[in-house]
Design goal:
The structure is a single chain. The chain is an all-alpha fold and 83 residues long. Helices cover 88% and strands 0% of the residues. The model has no long low-confidence stretch (mean pLDDT 92).
Length: 83
């Protein structure tokens, strides 16, 4: 694995843990695609640091479980602004 990719993977993992960020938020901050973030944390990170990979997986699982709630809030806010 190239050095810059490994460095990005670690930075992304630390950001997700510190901010409890979603894949979409992380991709926006780092200027990469959601697919890249997902691949970094699910495939590359376990090879670099399995312990951190498990912690990141826990955060992403929580985000996945709550996404329908966030979607509903976003829709509600959208229609409040238009009315």
């Amino acid at each position: 694995m190239k050095d810059y990719i490994e460095k990005r993977v670690v930075q992304i993992a630390n950001y997700i843990l510190d901010e409890k960020a979603t894949v979409r938020q992380t991709a926006k901050v780092f200027g990469v695609s959601k697919s890249t973030v997902h691949k970094d944390v699910t495939e590359r990170l376990p090879k670099i640091n399995p312990l951190v990979a498990n912690q990141v997986k826990d955060v992403l699982d929580i985000n996945k479980a709550e996404r329908h709630i966030r979607g509903g809030k976003a829709t509600r806010m959208k229609y409040k602004r238009t009315c």
